[in-house]
Specification:
three-stranded antiparallel β-sheet, 5 helices, 3 strands
Length: 98
């Protein structure tokens, strides 16, 4: 990640930061037979990450906006690291994708 994009992401609104992080994760996982998607729920102020494999395994993470903001304040890469870690706890082979 370039300095300019890291700076942008660090100061972006939480939803933009979240969406750009998941987009980066999608690019990394593109060649590994995994599909990523993300969503937001404005009603409940939640962010969602879904990952699934071609073999049918599914993984899901839910974060509140406050959790996302806190990770965003920690600096570039914090949210992505957290998401990979949570996926790995569920059995997702994150080490093969990162």
């Amino acid at each position: 990640m370039s300095y300019a994009s890291a700076l942008f992401c660090h100061h972006a609104d939480p939803e933009t930061y979240f969406q750009s992080t998941v987009a980066r994760m999608k690019r990394k996982a593109a060649g590994c037979h995994y599909v990523f998607d993300a969503g937001t729920s404005f009603l409940h102020n939640r962010f969602y990450v879904y990952a699934s494999s071609l073999r049918g395994a599914e993984f899901r993470i839910t974060l509140s906006q406050d959790q996302s903001k806190a990770l965003q304040k920690k600096g570039p890469g914090s949210l992505e690291h957290f998401l990979w870690s949570e996926l790995e706890k569920q059995g997702f082979p994150a080490s093969k994708v990162q």
